[in-house]
Design goal:
By secondary structure, the chain is α+β, with helices and mostly antiparallel strands. Helices cover 15% and strands 35% of the residues. A six-stranded antiparallel β-sheet has the order 1-2-3-4-6-5. The longest helix has 24 residues. The chain is elongated and about 100 Å long. The two termini are 50 Å apart.
């Protein structure tokens, strides 16, 4: 607590601390003017600087001050002490209703008495247009004199309590439709849905509280807040045991009437509620039972039998209505940006990839849906595209150029197989088969969960114009699966890009729908993002192998990466959908550092993305941005667009004289040359016509006659090739699979490159123009090598994203010293396989330009939809 005994707040002297909550600290104090004890709620100075918290504090003060009622906490004064606003109220002696309920249920007669007082207080508030919005046992106080006091009018706590998240956590407050506000176990259905609320929401919360007083258990309770809210929307509380609890039927009817799902079906005012309760006052439970039953007579028997039959029919009808799935949507919090996510089959667990606060390697996190306690899984640094095992015990994922699996409960991840390039998703079937995409280009592969049986799966199903099969998804039968197939060119065949159906047993590929999105499946519905960016669901018949209805919009907007056609959403088998409406992941800023890791400045550039490349004289910077090449003038602090083709252009490389830039255009993948001054049209170099191939320029030869490239094909994976500048056919340079980032030395005699030929990414050097030898430079891992301008040092990114330097000698033969770490960098996580470089270095090796991760100012929550395929989707 922040204030010591004896501290003066104006005329009030602190006596002792009473407690603390999300919106302030409460103290017992002495009013020295009137010589009476009071309670003081203090809002800390740090809270006072928060305009929203301050607004709510003042709202509480005004709301309570406007009420003068014996069942509402009385407020005496407000003030400010050393920047800390405070509120002075009557000091209550007794206990909260929550504390009373911890011992046993409240006897029916006493519960009616308490309920009348609560309803009287609510009626007084509602008549002044004040809606509590967070009525619950914690906000009801039982004084030692037997009076009930309603606390915290107009107050909704801002932060989710991790300890209480699964058991009645208070969610974000607000009055804007679409924002969930309240406490999960006591919210009205309209609050759960994020709709605007009125005084009838308090009546629902009153009903939930009265039910708990009578029964000793929550009216709505699940393992998590999400399950609790789902119960509020779809379920009815268990019947009260009238005989055991001595609850009159009239009282139970009042409770049920308060808990109607639709506001129009509840009591329409708290005054009506007090009148209904007053009819029960003064009657013992047995008398109330007799009063409800009426005088003894046998004339009622035929009518009772008829009524019972009618009620049975009504009950069946209501049961059918209430058990039908109802769609519901609300927000769930996450600790940081989410780039890839996966729901477990039962929809209760969410796995996602998120970076640390400083942009450290992204890791896998797992959280129980509806709680705020996300747990990182050790050993998953660099993870991407997680997918669940069918029993929800393990997660498959990709990291460090490998397909891995890890137990959700913990333990070291197990490597299943090394990959050739940038993975694009996986799926794990009930038959014990994993299908995955080992590379951004090429077919799907299959493997067993123990790492055996690795083999191509859809290689014979790829058409000549398809560049990639990706985002595999097994259907519940464990045999059929979905995949995305297509290319990234502007050719007419791109209209065939879309979602296809195939199977392990039949090895055929059936087109379902054109799409540029990853997808999900549940309960006979295919989910994907349409051309307008909306998440849609459409019925899928496996008997007919086709879609059988029209797409229905599930969510108006879902974040999507167009370069990978990955949409940030996931669907469980019970049609729970989690999605991100907007992407905040992978924000970055070009940042200068010295060789000690001290930040020197930043380069202003629009929509920074990837591949910073300094010009030979260090005055200009070429880089990828929004699928185009841009050039920044570092002296003037300005940037201009360099390429204008509607298709994607990436990976710029300066010629040694700084006059020409080579870059890759995706339609089809080919290297283009263009004068750096932009005055001449670009020129295409020769390239294979296969859309399944790709080529990315890495480095110019010293004589300017060739460009070393990273090439990719379905047959050979990633490898290094040479593209002659005169347009002659591309020829192999290094046939070793999984080789990339080739950099020709300043003297033109050596090439440094990265390769995971041994299963781990390391840095190697070979000769140029003929690759006749090989020397390993790195130790324990490395990527993204660069030469110093004089060729006497090699830089690369080592383990844990530490920028590392190695002194080398090329006199006669090649030799290198032990690697020496410089400083840790936090580059942006790669988005696509074209992200070759996250940094560049000046010729003297003293300054480094890093595409540095930037944490966004705010992290928007994910959205979750329950029963997304239920009737009534928009």
């Amino acid at each position: 607590m922040g204030l010591a005994a004896g501290t003066k707040l104006g005329p009030y002297e602190i006596v002792s601390a009473l407690g603390a909550g999300g919106m302030g600290e409460v103290y017992k104090a002495r009013d020295t003017r009137l010589d009476r004890d009071v309670a003081i709620k203090v809002l800390p100075e740090s809270f006072a600087r928060d305009a929203e918290r301050m607004r709510r504090f003042e709202q509480e003060a005004r709301a309570i001050a406007a009420l003068s009622h014996p069942n509402v906490l009385a407020i005496y004064d407000t003030g400010t002490h050393e920047g800390m606003p405070y509120l002075v109220s009557e000091l209550l002696e007794g206990e909260s209703l929550r504390q009373a309920l911890q011992e046993c249920p409240v006897p029916a007669r006493k519960a009616i008495e308490y309920a009348q007082q609560i309803a009287d207080g609510l009626a007084a508030a509602h008549e002044k247009s004040i809606v509590h919005r967070d009525l619950k046992p914690e906000n009801l106080f039982l004084t030692s004199g037997g009076r009930v006091k309603i606390l915290d009018f107009g107050l909704a706590k801002v932060e989710i309590s991790h300890a209480a998240a699964a058991d009645g956590a208070t969610l974000t407050a607000g009055t804007t439709p679409g924002v969930v506000m309240g406490t999960t176990g006591y919210m009205a259905p309209e609050q759960v849905r994020g709709d605007a609320v009125d005084h009838r929401a308090d009546i629902f919360s009153f009903g939930a509280t009265l039910y708990e007083m009578l029964s000793g258990r929550r009216a709505f309770k699940g393992d998590t807040s999400v399950e609790t809210m789902n119960a509020i929307l779809k379920e009815e509380p268990a019947e009260l045991d009238a005989e055991k609890l001595h609850v009159a039927p009239g009282l139970e009817r009042i409770v049920r009437h308060c808990l109607e799902k639709k506001p129009a079906d509840r009591f329409q005012s708290a005054r009506d509620l007090t009148f209904a309760l007053s009819a029960l006052t003064g009657s013992s439970p047995s008398a109330a039972l007799r009063m409800a039953a009426g005088p003894p007579s046998r004339r009622w028997i035929p009518w009772a039998i008829a009524a019972a039959a009618l009620l049975a029919l009504v009950a069946v009808s209501l049961l059918m209505q209430r058990t039908a799935p109802q769609r519901a949507e609300f927000a769930i919090s996450v600790p940081g940006e989410v780039s890839h996510l996966a729901l477990s089959a039962d929809g209760k667990w969410l796995a996602f990839v998120s970076p640390g606060d400083q942009g450290s390697d992204p890791m896998l996190y797992v959280e129980r849906v509806g709680t705020a306690d996300a747990r990182p899984i050790a050993g998953t640094e660099g993870a991407s595209y997680p997918f669940w095992s069918p029993d929800d015990v393990n997660l498959g994922f990709f990291a460090g150029g490998k397909l891995k699996k890890v137990a959700v409960s913990g333990g070291q991840p197990e490597t299943l197989v090394a990959l050739a390039g940038a993975a694009r998703g996986g799926s794990w079937s009930r038959q014990g088969v994993i299908i995955y995409t080992p590379d951004a280009g090429g077919p799907l592969w299959r493997i067993n969960p123990d790492g055996s049986g690795n083999a191509p799966l859809t290689d014979k199903l790829m058409s000549a114009t398809e560049a990639s099969h990706r985002w595999p998804l097994f259907l519940p039968d464990g045999d059929h699966f979905l995949l995305w197939a297509g290319d990234f060119s502007s050719s007419p065949d791109r209209s065939k890009n879309g979602i296809y159906l195939s199977s392990l047993s039949h090895r055929e590929k059936i087109e379902l729908t054109p799409a540029q999105s990853s997808f999900g499946y549940a309960n006979g519905h295919l989910f994907y993002v349409d051309a307008n960016g909306a998440l849609v669901a459409v019925p899928l018949s496996l008997r007919q192998d086709k879609l059988t209805g029209d797409p229905q919009v599930i969510a108006p907007r879902v974040a999507i990466s167009h370069s990978t056609v990955y949409a940030t959403f996931s669907v469980s088998e019970n049609s729970t959908v989690v999605y991100a409406a907007n992407s905040t992941a992978n924000l970055s800023q070009f940042t200068w550092f010295d060789d000690a890791g001290k930040e020197l400045g930043r380069v202003e550039a629009p929509a920074v993305e990837a591949n910073p490349q300094l010009s030979p004289d260090g005055t200009r910077l070429a880089y990828d941005s929004n699928e185009d090449i841009w050039i920044a003038d570092l002296r003037r602090g300005s940037s201009s667009r360099f390429t204008f083709d509607p298709e994607e252009e990436t990976t710029p490389q300066w010629s040694r004289d700084g006059e020409t830039i080579a870059y890759r255009n995706v339609a089809p993948p080919v290297v283009h040359l263009k004068k750096a001054n932009g005055l001449e049209a670009d020129r295409r170099l020769a390239m294979s016509s296969s859309a399944a191939d790709d080529i990315l320029p890495n480095s110019w030869s010293a004589d300017g006659k060739a460009i070393l490239c990273t090439s990719q094909s379905a047959q050979t994976g990633w490898h290094l090739t040479l593209a002659p500048a005169d347009g002659s056919p591309v020829r192999p340079f290094l046939s070793t699979r999984s080789s990339t980032n080739g950099q020709i030395s300043p003297d033109g005699k050596w090439v440094v490159y990265a390769s995971n030929e041994t299963g781990d990414w390391e840095i190697y050097v070979t000769t140029f123009p003929g690759a006749t030898g090989k020397w390993q430079v790195s130790r324990g891992g490395g990527s993204e090598p660069r030469w110093r301008g004089d060729g006497k040092q090699i830089f690369y990114i080592g383990p844990k994203e530490v920028l590392t330097v190695v002194n080398v000698s090329t006199e006669g033969t090649f030799s290198s010293d032990a690697p020496r770490p410089l400083f840790a960098i936090h580059p942006r996580a790669p988005i696509s396989s074209t992200d070759l470089f996250n940094y560049d270095v000046t010729r003297d090796g003293k300054r480094f330009l890093v595409n540095q991760y930037v944490r966004p100012a705010s992290i928007p929550p994910l959205r979750i939809i329950l029963h997304a395929d239920a009737p009534g989707v928009k």
